[in-house]
Amino acid sequence: MSVEAADFVVVGSGAGGATAALVLAEAGCDVIVCEEGPEVRDEDRGLGSHDAFMRLFRDKGTQVAMGRSVIPILQGRCVGGTTVVNGAIVWRLPEDAYDRAFRAVGAAEAVPLPALLAQMDRIERDLHVAPAPDRLLGGNGTLMKRGSARLGWKAHAINRNVLDCQGSGRCLEACPTKRKQSMERTYLPRAAALGARILAGHEVRVVETSAARATAVSGRRADGSPFRIAARRGVVLAASAVQTPCILRRSGLGPRQHVGAHFRAHPGTAVAGIYDEPVRIWEGATQSYEIDEFRGQGFKMEVVGLPVELAGVRLPGMGADFQRAMNDFPHMAVWGVQVRAEAEGTVEPAGDRTRITFTPSPRDMETFRQGVRRLCELHFAAGAKRVYPGVHGGPDVLSSPDEMGQLDALPLDPRDWSFIAAHFFGTTRMGKTADDGVVGFDGAVHGVRGVWVLDAGAIPTNLGVNPQHTIMALAMHLAERIAQAS
Amino acid sequence: MGLGEGAQRRIAVVLADVFGEPLDVARAVAAFLDAYLRQVPFQAALGLRVVTWAITWLPLLFIGVPLPAHRLSHETRMRYLRRWQTSKVYFLREGFYLLKAIALMGWGAHPAVRERLGVGPMAAVQRATPAVQP
Question: How far apart are CA A254 and CA A444, in angstroms?
């Protein structure tokens, strides 16, 4: 078995891992980044949903959470992690979200909001973050803008980490023109330029310890061969809120009652509207506009530029009916509602895969019902002539706002809904002691020295906003402290 | 795990009705399903393979007709498929949804479908333009 060594081994190359690697490399540390997935080649980009799933997503896009219903759990699995296949949405951490996530657990002193915001300033400069300009709103975003203006709802163009975006509408397939400032295009090359070694196809399975101190990681390469890398100063786990707890479990590290528990998420669903005017959903930024009028009520709405092969999934009808519905595709706008679910799930290793359990709570379902009603209202306000709520047991289609009363009776059983979940938190949450969480306020795993968690799992609860920015800011803040302390 | 030629032929007849497409398009979608099953993790492939088998062979259970789905008349097959789509049993309804969702990826990639919807061929987007360094 080959053995390498570095000051720090960073496990995972997404938002948290890439940021940690850059900060540690900037501090002069010798860094190795282990990424389970492959490098993203030019020929992997913009090939459609199927190829993206096969090449760039965990379990080829088949990962699900099991509970009362089956919910797809989408995560990137490639150099750059989910930043490669997300909608390039950047959200500065709002104070109310900070209070829920950090102040509520007593982390305000160790992780102060001003410090996170200062890190966000740097990240926004580095990643060229700016609101989507009108030319990139596309028909999908322009209609949401129109509808929200008519209803007087608080809304804005989405802040995105892109540079000279071409509006090809394929963010979720790895930007075909390489304009998205995802980690494989930004922080990872910068870290590499400072000497960091980025090893694709290296799946870390276990953190090895000696005398309660991390000494190495071991795992297997994409070809199945084993590897081991010695960590002179420590191991930074940033493999996501799904994978990091599995590594800790396999390693026997961290307080067992919390590792993999407290899984929180932002499940979402979508509503399609058909318009007289052409929408051409495939043009413009994939996600260009959003509404945060209802964030205080636990949900947020955003444009979702779905490709034709995904847009038809929940449209009702078969045969000629399906054809009629899909012939409207050029006139279809699709918007999603994302819920800050109160439900908690679990994550644990199950052989070579991961077992995730999650069921939205009754209150989450009420929030979804309200969110879908608001989306339908928004579509009609924007001028839709037909709206497809997409909930089994509810109306297949609404042709007028007068019919929206039917939505008040939408079923509240998750099995009647079509969810997809993104943004995962809490599985290695921060807590002052091992009784409260998996890691301390410095990101260090309780009960062992030299192991830190710098990914979304350390964030104690779901934020209600897209988390990439917070993950990066938190990783930057804590990695600076790790570098200083070591 | 994949779909043999016979299974592809049978499910293609079903998919032609689901999507309202000519049989040649449906055959391409069935071939896509075969390739998909060979690529995804075993558990996911097994689930989809079971659904494909069940939809092909269980009209007797759903509508009391002792024929496989591909041998039914168009009208009977549509009635049978609607039973799956609107079943009160979650796992049956979700099984049909799973097949439709995966098959849609093959359907949406078909050149004839894309041309008809005006979305252009799958590889129309310019790739690998000169790198923009941050």
Answer: 10
